[in-house]
Every structure is written in structure tokens, then in C-alpha cells.
Amino acid sequence: MKIVICLCLILYWLSFPVYPFGHSLLPLFSLDPSYININHGSYGSAPKYIHEKLQEYQLKAERNPDRWFRLDVQIEMENLRKKLSKYVNCDPDDLVIIDNVSAGINSILKSLKFQSNETILYYNIAYGMVKLTLQYLSTEIFTQKQIIQIELNHQTIQNTNLLLKKTQDIINKIKNVKLIIFDHISSIPAILFDIESMLKYFHSQGILTLIDGAHAIGAIELNLTKLNPDFYLSNTHKWLYTHRSSCLLYIKKDLQKLIHPIITSFGYLQSFQNEFFWLGTKDYSSYLTISDALDFRQTIANEIDIYNYNHQLAIQAGYLLAQMWNSSILISNEKFISTMNNIELPVIINTLDKMNILYQKLINQYNIFLPMIEFDKKFYCRISAQIYMELNDYQTVGKIVLDAISIIKFLPSLK
Ligand SMILES: Cc1ncc(COP(=O)(O)O)c(C=O)c1O
């Protein structure tokens, strides 16, 4: 009996994070101590351990370039795909590593063949690069009529039934929708969509699905076999802690032959994996740090604890700032909040001009970068939570925003 109790106690103790979350983790990162990184979501931040590993790979390449490129890096990348595929639960042959989501989305959209009456749907909250790539396609390859934007508002972004109803109405009108593009976690406003339901629904309609999961891997649990998307992308340098830039591209087996990378090189027509592996001579070190980032995470805590800390901190920070600014949060149902949250700016910020003045003031005078947006007639900022942040960081930023507003309030344009 005593042994059982001891074992239980050890297991209980082992289930705790090795490090406590918050500022005690800051020394593991290279962030400037005077900088509050309230915007981890844009570019991520790799731990010092990852920088060391990056340099090790670069040194290996320098020591014997022929051996590295002709043998070693191929084996390393093969092993990496196997390790990563376990983390996201898919067949290793269904994923490749590429530079970033932009490269992946461009490869997919510029490879797929469309009949002149087939259409692509996307939502107004899509990332700017997606919209511009579609604009390029609509002028260079398709007609404007083939690319249709669906408008979401503060209600439809947090109600999957309403969102699907709105989308279905458009599908009924257009009839021949070939592809729909949507976010797993959108950029700004940041919303965690119920893509499991969305995927089931669109597949039942025979529509191909392209998911921009730029913010997903490392932020939330990702199970690609369960989700079963047609195309899925996620930047590992945002939330998984790899070096920039590195990104996972998953393509369902029967679609792999249809998609080619933007750069054509020696892998052309060999296989999905080979085609995306060799895009000309380049530095693979950032990609290889994916393996080290997965190891690093295990030394910090278990995955669920990392997800939960960031998710809870994003929620708490949202309430705190809304209270400090006497404003509101965009998402009321926590199910739609990931590791980022959207808070309405103080009500005096009620025009785009005022929002831009505040944005510039914060960067130029306070060294604070706070992404901002007008959405559904209100003005919001986006905050990111991360394991090295604590609630008092958001309080500090909240006060800084009030301070900046109190100074610029006296400018004629803000009255
Ligand atoms: C939702 C979303 N999609 C795509 C991207 C593009 O990522 P990248 O610039 O690494 O290609 C971003 C970048 O922040 C994003 O937030």
C-alpha cells in the first residue's frame, strides 16, 4: 500500500511543470528585458536553446557541405517529418516542411486547376496575404466572379451554426464552389474557429478545404487525422518555439500530385516529399529546430499545461484590460479564444485615424507593439499570451495605453 501511495505521489509530482510559468522563464528566451512582448503571435520568439541548436546545424553544414546536403540533411529531414507527424498525428508522408504559410498558400492556389465556372470562397477575416494572393489570381488567372468573400461579423465569428448558415446561403446561390479557405485561428481579430464542424460540413458538400492554421501548432492540440482537412498549414515559428522560418504543410494523399511548390527544382514529379524538400540550395537549420522545439517543450511542462497556461492568461488579460479601459472583449464564448484575445480600445479611439495615432505613439514612444483593427464598427487590439508572460505585464501595457491616450487626447485630431 505504502509503495502505491509513494508511486502516486511521484506521478502527481511529475505531472507538474518542471519550471513555473511566467517571468521565471524569461531568461530562457533572448527577449530584451526592457521589452514586454505582448505580440508573440506575429513572429514568435525562439528560446536560447533553439538558437544554440540552429548554430550547431549551420556549423555541421559548413564543416562538410557536400556530406551535409547530399546525405545528412536528407536523413535529418526524414527523421524530423516522422517526429513531427507523431505530434500532429498524421502519416509522415502527408507532411512536408516549407518556409512559411505564405509559400504554402501560394503553392496550393497557383497549382490547383479550376474550370471557368468554379469558384473559391473565403472570409473577410482572412490574412492579408491570402486576400492578395486571391486578388492576384483573380486578375492574372481567374475572373473576379470566381473569387467570393463572405462577410463575418461579431456574431458569426463566434457561432458556428450562424457561420455555416451564412456560408450555405452563398453556396446555394453560387452552386459550383470548388474550394473554401478558412482560418483555424485567425490573425486579427484572433478567433479560434470550430474547424472540426466546418470541415465535416464542407466535405459533406463536396468542397475542398484549405486551412490557414498559421497560429495553431503549439498553441492548441492539433490532430490532423481526426480533423481530416484537404490542405493544412501551420507556422512552427509562431507558437511551437522553432527558429524563423519554418512551417508545416499537410496535404491529403490523393491531392498531393496536384500541388507543386512555387520553385521548380530536382524533386519535380518525383514525390510530394521530394518536390517540396529541394527548392534550391538553402539553409535547413530553422526547419531542423522543429525537433529541438518539441524537446524543449517537454523540459518546460507537458503540452496540455502549456496550452492551458497561455489560453487562461489570454482570457484573464482580456478581462483585465477591458476593465481598465472601461471597454469590452470581442469574444464572449471562451471556446473561440485561443492564446490571443481581442479587446476593444478605450472609447475615445473611435476612428481609424485615432487608432493609427495611438498605434504609432505606442511604438515610437513606449516601445509597445500592439496590433489593432477596426472590426464590425469597433476598434480592437490583439494581445498574445505566452509562457514567459504574467498578468501584471498586461496591467503595465494597459496603463501605458491610458497614459498615451491622455497625452494625445489634447491633440486636435483626437478631440
Ligand atoms: C492567420 C495568418 N495566416 C498567415 C500568416 C502568414 O505567415 P507568414 O508570414 O509566416 O507566411 C500569418 C502571419 O502572421 C497569419 O497570422
Automatic annotation (TrEMBL):
Keyword Signal: yes
Pfam family, one: Aminotran_5
Key word Transferase present: no
Signal peptide: 1-20
Domain of life, source organism: Eukaryota
InterPro entries on file: Aminotrans_V_dom, PyrdxlP-dep_Trfase, PyrdxlP-dep_Trfase_major
Keywords, comma-separated and alphabetical: Pyridoxal phosphate, Signal
Domain Aminotransferase class V as annotated: residue spans: 50-331
Protein name according to UniProt: Aminotransferase class V domain-containing protein
